[in-house]
Amino acid sequence: MNSAVQDYNNLQNDSDKEICDQIATIINKNLSDAENKIWHAHPVWFLEGNPIVGYSKLKNNVRLLFWSGQSFDEEKLLNEGSFKAAEFRYTSAEQINKEDLERWLKKAIDIQWDYKNIVKRKGLLERLK
Fold first, then answer.
1. Per DSSP, what are the bridge partners of residue 34?
2. What is the pTM of this model?
3. Residue 118 lies in a domain
4. What whole-number distance in Å separates Cα of residue 81 and Cα of residue 74?
């Protein structure tokens, strides 16, 4: 795991750290070619410079965010924001369903909107895959 991401996880309380560690492990296993770094203060994974998935500690949960998740056709993922992002929020590590997460990560590779160039396109998203 990226040391900066591990540092982020280590700052969380025990139950949130367990959630973060499990999520990061599954993401790293399934997105082995992705760049992983702290971006806007949270762990994020990128493919060819495009943000794919990340997580962040919120007040009462850990939010897993897929930048193109609204296009995944997954009822467990909730729309987030005005673009194409979707999220799932965890309050305990027991809620992590490895099969769901692995399926979402596969879709994150296959279904991508171009967030890398969103500023250049003045807020317009184009589908990459």
1. none
2. 0.89
3. no
4. 16
Does the residue 95 lie in any domain? yes
Amino acid found at 82: S
Q: Convert the pLDDT of each residue in 84-93 to its tens digit.
A: 999 999 999 9
The torsion defined by the Cα of 50, 23, 27 and 74, in degrees rounded to 10, comes to -70
In 31-97, alpha helices (H): none
Say if 70 falls within a structural domain. Answer: yes
Q: Any residues with CB less than 8 A from the CB of 77 and at least 6 apart, and which?
A: 66, 69, 70, 86, 87, 88, 104
- Number of structural domains (the chain) is 1
Residue 106, in any domain of the structure:
yes
Domain that holds residue 74: 3-110
Beta bridge partners of 89: 63
3-class SS of residue 86:
strand
The whole-angstrom separation of Cα 57 and Cα 114 is 25
Strands (E), 1-129: 35-39, 42-47, 50-57, 62-66, 78-79, 86-90
